[in-house]
Write a structure and sequence with these properties.
Belongs to the calcium channel flower family. There is one protein chain. The chain has 196 residues and is mainly alpha-helical. 60% of the residues lie in helices and 0% in strands. It has 7 helices and no strands. The mean pLDDT is 80.
Amino acid sequence: MSFTEKIGQLMQRPGQDAIPNDDVPWWMKYAGRGLGTVGGGIAIFLGVWVCTGILFAEVNCLIAGIWQMLAGFITIVIEAPCCCMFLDFVQNISNFMEQRPYYYRGGLYIAIALPAVVLCANLSTIFGSGLIFGTGVIYGMMSLGKKATAEEMRSKAAAAGTSSGPSDVPNSGMKSSLVDNAQPVGFTGSPFDSNV
């Protein structure tokens, strides 16, 4: 048993299939979960820091700090429910989000990361919400799926480049060149008046 398989067994959720059903690389799954967990904790800490803006009568920063702490808490609840096991509803929320496609989580994280930056754009909100936004981007990339192999891409490109059509319509395939697509130029005379 390799080291990555041992880590995979340790990181496995209760009731999760031992064989993954999707084609997302293992490192991307752990990157999303790790960045979500660590980023949520940092966002909570920086949200408390942003809330101190009320000392300078910056109400927008107070609201942004509260929002950022809430966004960090939601991220931790979804990504690492073991951190909030004292709350009985956390496991239900985490299981609900685990059954949804990756783009649900990506969209949720991106949506909850933006309001804090819009309300109070300082370094703490940009960094704290940026980590949650980065988690959303990783889940968005996971929803795109696996990239095709080089052979598959070459065969599809070759099939698209050899499409047959009428001879008077320019070919827009990959193997067409600009000279092959050029239309004949008609010459009607000098554009300048020679009497001037």
